[in-house]
Amino acid sequence: MKNLSVAVVDYDCGNLHSASKALELAMKESDLSGSVFLTKDPEKIINSDKLILPGVGAFKACIEKLKSIDGLQDSIEEFALKKQKPILGICIGLQLMASKSYEGGEQNGLSLIHGDVVPIFLSKNDLKIPHMGWNNMLQEKEHSVLNGLNNKDFYFVHSYRFKPKNNESILANTNYGEDFPSVLCSGNIIGTQFHPEKSQGAGIALLKNFLEWAP
Question: pLDDT, tens digit, for every residue of 35-93?
């Protein structure tokens, strides 16, 4: 069996070490062998088998940091769009995959999944922004990355949410004041609004499914 190379994009804007440790644990629990590594090197990104785009913080700061690193945006786009290899966006990492965000003014994203990042709309006065804590994920479609995880609780920290151009990309929803997509997918590109690396057993199971996924 081929050793799997899993690159975690290091652009100084994510839960890099916890994401890496969670992926290493998921690798041990799978039938796979391989390595998980942090990198901002475009060549290493393009040549990896799987790519993780993590993210913590505000969209504007994160997209600016990502775009400031020579060749990084181009390498992510080549990996995802040209080579069509599996990529997972986590929290802000998912939001960076959008066409645009309206957090901190209008910002262009990577356009890997078409749609906009907009504020969460609260319909109840007893809810607070940011949405922070455990909430369940309700599957809308079957997908191998979500196997065995319908209605499981995952950990969220966000004030904005993804509004896709095409609802066909929604794999799962979560409710917090409104229903919003918590997992989106377009071909080889998938993203979670929650943090699998902070979601204990369910999160490790999702990462294991992603490592085993062959779109």
Answer: 999 999 999 999 999 999 998 889 999 999 999 999 999 999 999 999 999 999 999 99
Low-confidence ranges of the chain (pLDDT < 50): none
Q: Find the helix packing angle between 16-29 and 200-212, rounded to 10°.
A: 70
Task: Give the SS3 label for residue 8.
Answer: strand
Please give the biggest Cα pair distance in the chain: 54
Token couple for 186: 């377009």
Q: Read out DSSP for 109-175?
A: ---SS-EEEEEPPP-STT--SSEEEEEE-EESS--GGGTT-TT-EEEEEESEEEEESSGGGEEEEEE
Cα angle at 124 between 119 and 128, to 5 degrees?
55
pTM greater than 0.85 (yes/no): yes
Pairing mode, strands 4-9 and 34-39 = parallel
Beta-strand (E) ranges in 50-123?
50-53, 87-90, 100-101, 107-108, 115-119
Residues, the chain, total? 215
**8 A C-beta contact, residue 69 and residue 58:** no
162 close to 172: Cβ distance less than 8 angstroms: no
Residues serving a catalytic function are 91, 195, 197
Domains in the chain, please, with CATH?
4-212 (3.40.50.880)
Could you give the CA distance from residue 192 to residue 190 in angstroms, rounded to a whole number? 7
CA neighbours closer than 13 Å in the CB half-sphere of residue 157? 13
